[in-house]
Amino acid sequence: MIDQKALYLYNHKKNQQIWTHDDSFLMYEKNWIERTRDSFPKIEDSLSYSQFKDNINQLIKEETENENESSNFVSYGMNLEQFKIFIQEFAVDGFTEAQVFYYVMPRLHLSAQLPLLRIMIDEFGSGNPKRSHTTLYCNLLEELDLPTQVQYYYDKISITNYEFVNLYYWLTLRADDPSYFVGALTYLESIIPYVFPCYVDACKRLNITSHQYYSEHCHIDTFHSQECYRVLNAMQETNTLNAAKAWEGVLLSSIITNHVFEEAVAKAKNYISSPTTFTLEETL
């Protein structure tokens, strides 16, 4: 018999199952995630929170200490037309940034929601639409005479570069534990202050004034990394953190983020500047 209690339990469960799905898409997604998982060693279920923190700190250290040829190319070698190719590869993320995070909020313990909410408030400009990260991205596109409608980029960007956004759909909507998402986000917020300076360098070198999308991330994501650890700590204190799954989220995020970045740089490198008119179609 359905009553108000049953209705509440049904609604609460549906927070983790937002839509009725086409099984073929879910199977494609499952196979993709499993292939990515197969690329790193199996993680022991007994991994502790202390070990998780040691692991992610070591990973960030390894990824940021060594000189990166692709980052150097963005900083010092990319010309303006190549930079246009490069930044449009991240258009789907730039237009939808953090929107999917809403779905994971009800899945977190109440004490873990507040630090994530503070991150989201920053992403959306702290109540000022002119300062939202998507607006800052659109400002950059406008300065470069690129369209500010996301649909324009659907057939322009590489298939690979959809992986980054699709990962966060899986993390927030389909992963069986929000620990995956929190681990992935902690990695991302921790690595961006080391990665995005090359974007800022390129903007300065190419006399692009709308660099705030990148310089803002360099500044704010240091604080967002701290907020992620507050989420993790709150989950650990409430026995809702699965450290092994959080570490798996870190590795998924690292592999896919780095793959997408390298693919975007390679596409920009392979672009041959036209002596006359620049057209995006030439990059396909």
Automatic annotation (TrEMBL):
SUPFAM superfamilies linked: Heme oxygenase-like (SSF48613)
Pfam families recorded: Haem_oxygenas_2
InterPro entries hit by this protein: Haem_Oase-like_multi-hlx
SMART domains: Haem_oxygenase_2
Domain of life, per lineage: Bacteria
Name this polypeptide is given: Iron-containing redox enzyme family protein
The organism of origin for this protein: Sessilibacter corallicola
